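Q: Focus on the chain.
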Amino acid sequence: MRTAAFTVLACTTAIASVCTAQTAPINPQADAILAAALQECVTEVQGSDPQAPVPVLEIEPGAVTWVALSDLDEKDDVILDFNHILCSQDYALWHGTGGSIIHAVVDGERSASWSGGIWRVDEFYGSPLLLIGRHGTACDGYGAQPCVQAISVYEGGFSTVRLPQSNEEDAGDD
């Protein structure tokens, strides 16, 4: 059973007066990412003003989602979606026009992150595939242009196409 361990950690670490209802799972890498986010939140808010209120992480529904990235049989991997994780005293800290940080944590030990607004896990010929809606400039376009990045997971890490080129573009270079 997944428990509320991180909320307790966040509340006691920051000596916060307010805690959030949704909590992160017990997962070493996910907890480390959230602990680093909390530290960044505190540093950003109180770095220039030590008298500022102590911030907390506001973890909204949708922030922590169990998914199957390493295999399709078991949902033992985690997506931490910072579109739903906020610094209580600096809501813009991880958020911009291209969305926010999306962390994929596999087997509780390894992770990678991308920026995006939306995501979903799909299947490609029996293998899990993480799809992330990115800012249009990630596809050499404009901000609101549809742009989707596909990421697959393998034993050594994560793989994706870096800078795709179409055959038409290649043909024009001759």
In short: Confidence is low (pLDDT under 50) at residues 1-22. The first strand starts at residue 57 and ends at 59. Residues 5-115 form one domain. Strands lie at 57-59, 64-67, 77-81, 85-87, 100-106, 110-116, 118-124, 127-133, 148-154, 157-159.
